[in-house]
Amino acid sequence: AIGRPVPVANYHVTRAFLGNVPLSRLPPIVEVAACVRFHPFTLILDRYGYFPRAQVAWLGCTALPAPLARLVSDLRQGLLDAGWLGETRGFRTDHAAQRETGACHADAAQGSSGYCPHLTVARKMAARPQWPAPPAIRWKVGEFVLVESRISAGRVEYQVIDRYPALTSGE
């Protein structure tokens, strides 16, 4: 089963999934995100994985870059301190299932937080795809964004709410 490819315009790597957020709760989230400081880094996407319950095939990394781990940790801590826990999707994982399915695990890209950086490439995959190893993709990360997901005509579209740039070399 080929599944449904994710449109390139929807490619992203989630740092923190917040779930449904009422507009009244958005200002503290924006404030927390604006306070997170990070240096630019490169994320190397070099392996495929599969989340069986979600029926999602994804592209991920063998090594979790330290700046990404810090960015995620700082963002999540800021959200917790602000009283916003949100959902933990993509952060808490079942290690046994991961080993069986090729998902993130301790000897790959998962840090102690359980964060598994991945880019979803296909949905509605009934089984783990038997794809050859991908060529390494070097994704230069110079910002993160806060997005709202909207469903239109049965498809998800992402609307950027705000952008948060990385520090420049002099900062």
Shape: globular
Helix count, per DSSP? 3
Low-confidence stretches: 87-103, 105-112
Specify the structural class.
Answer: alpha+beta
Radius of gyration: 16 Å
Query: Hey, roughly how much beta strand do the residues contain?
Result: 25-35%
Strand order of the largest sheet: 1-5-4-3
Helix fraction by DSSP (H/I, runs of at least 4): 10-25%
User: Which assembly state applies to the chains in this document?
Assistant: single chain
First-residue to last-residue Cα separation: 49 Å
Total E-strand runs: 8
List keywords for this structure.
alpha+beta, four-stranded antiparallel β-sheet, 171 residues
Could you walk me through the main structural features you see in this protein, from its secondary elements to its overall organization?
With 171 residues, the protein is α+β, with helices and mostly antiparallel strands. It is built from 3 helices and 8 strands, in the order βαβββααββββ. The protein has helices at 26-35, 66-81, 95-101; strands spanning 4-5, 41-45, 47-51, 56-60, 118-123, 137-141, 143-152, 155-165. Strands 1-5-4-3 form a 4-stranded antiparallel beta sheet, with no helix packed on it. A two-stranded antiparallel sheet has the order 2-6. Strands 7-8 form a two-stranded antiparallel ribbon. Strand 7 (143-152) and strand 8 form a beta hairpin. It starts with a strand and ends in a 6-residue tail after the last strand. Mean pLDDT is 81; it is low at 87-103 and 105-112.
